[in-house]
Design brief:
Strand order of the largest sheet: 2-1-3-4
Low-confidence stretches: none
Strand content: over 45%
Number of strands: 12
Number of helices: 0
Shape: extended
Distance between the termini: 72 Å
Mean pLDDT: 92
């Protein structure tokens, strides 16, 4: 593997959740860029618990991990970044009719090295009128795709998909309904 120069390493503090999006909000407390050999040393970090994120042009950003820093803490990381690629597709019902407004979420990402690849933020997409969705900035590798929409349930929820990919088809089926009556022996309603 080749060094990735000019990678931005950001040390971020969790500021809580945005009530409108339910996404976590992070504040960068320290950052720096790697040199031509892909090395960086950040000094004098304030004590605290942080998320460490690596990002570089043309590469998929990666959440390296979480760390607690005291006044004399040293953390060392070897980071593998994957080229950024796209994944596109559409959501349909079992007959092939597009489903508009479905939420699609990327999860359980495995990078090209066969290891988990944590993104710094959750990737969500909503299908358009033709049932199409698109994700950009993903690492090459494999993932699971999860769909949700009121009144529907996803099929093939355990399937994994290769990234990059174009024209994937995810299927959803309308959810059933259940009505029940509970009676006592002899058919009398419960009191």
């Amino acid at each position: 593997s080749k060094p990735v120069p000019h990678t931005l390493i950001a040390v971020e503090k969790n500021k809580g959740q945005d009530p409108k999006t339910n996404q976590y909000v992070y504040e960068t407390v320290a950052s720096g860029q790697t040199d031509a050999d892909g090395h960086l040393e950040l000094k004098s970090l304030p004590p605290g618990s942080y998320q460490i994120v690596a990002s570089a042009e043309g590469m998929a950003s990666k959440m390296i991990g979480y760390a607690d820093f005291g006044k004399d803490t040293l953390q060392t990381y070897d980071v593998y970044l994957s080229p950024a690629v796209a994944l596109t597709g559409r959501v349909t019902d079992p007959s092939g009719k597009p489903i508009a407004g479905a939420n699609v979420r990327v999860g359980s990402i495995v990078g090209p090295d066969g290891l988990g690849y944590a993104l710094p933020d959750q990737r969500l997409s909503k299908t358009d009128e033709q049932g199409k969705f698109k994700f950009e900035g993903l690492p090459a590798g494999r993932c699971q795709l999860f769909t949700s929409l009121h009144g529907y349930h996803g099929l093939d929820v355990f399937k994994t998909y290769t990234i990059p990919a174009t024209d994937l088809t995810l299927k959803m089926s309308s959810a059933g309904a259940l009505k029940a009556s509970v009676t006592q022996a002899g058919g009398w309603p419960l009191a």
